[in-house]
Structures are given as structure tokens and as C-alpha cells.
Amino acid sequence: MKSLASICLITNDVPRLRLFYETVLRVSPEGDDTFTSFALPGATLALFGEADMERMAAGSTLGIGRGACALEIEVEDVDDEHGRLLALDAVIVKPPTTQPWGSRSVWFRDPDGNLV
Fold first, then answer.
1. HSE of 74 in the Cβ direction (CA atoms, 13 Å)?
2. What sign has the CA pseudo-torsion 11, 12, 13, 14?
3. Which of 4, 19, 49, 96 has the fewest CB atoms in 10 Å of its CB?
4. Strand pairing partners for 97?
5. C-alpha–C-alpha distance, residues 68 and 62, integer Å
6. Backbone torsions φ then ψ of 73, nearest 5 degrees
7. Model pTM?
């Protein structure tokens, strides 16, 4: 294996998730209401419609559910991002916390319930 190329979130509402991640990541997406991608350092974050996935491969989304993914995004200042997320009305799961191993993080949910 060479590297992780992308993470694709399957969703019932690509436009809603695209707007959320465009606002949170401050990156312009490419694509449309079927498939959208965000080119990020290290890997691409992609969003794909569940109905379109089913058209490509019947049964491929059976039992996938929502909110079962956790994404980790590195930022310069967790506390600044926390303030920005609050202003965006993001659902905060865990406020800024310094972990025992020294990293600092804030946890929040995307509109589909995925943990970020």
C-alpha cells in the first residue's frame, strides 16, 4: 500500500454536508449534488449520495447507517477553532481538552452525526 487517498462519507444529503464541510474546513469543494470532494493535505474528503451509490452497486449501502465515522483534522489552535465552531452552531461533543499524551482536541458532530 502506498498511501490513504481519500475518505468518502455516504450521505442522504450531499448539499447539506458539502456546505457544512466547506464552512468548517474553509476549503472550496469540487463536484456537484451527487459527488463532492475536498482536496486536503494528505487525503481527499469525499461526499457521495446514498441513492447514487446504490445505482452504482445495488446493495452496497445495506446497513451502513449514519454517524458511524470519526474524522480527525489537525488545526493550528484548537481553542480558536472551538470558538469558531460555537459561532457556527456546531454540535460540540467534547470541549477543548488536553489529552494525557499531550494533544489537545475538541470533538463535534457533522449534520449526519459523524464525529469530527
1. 5
2. positive
3. 4
4. 105
5. 14
6. -120, 125
7. 0.90
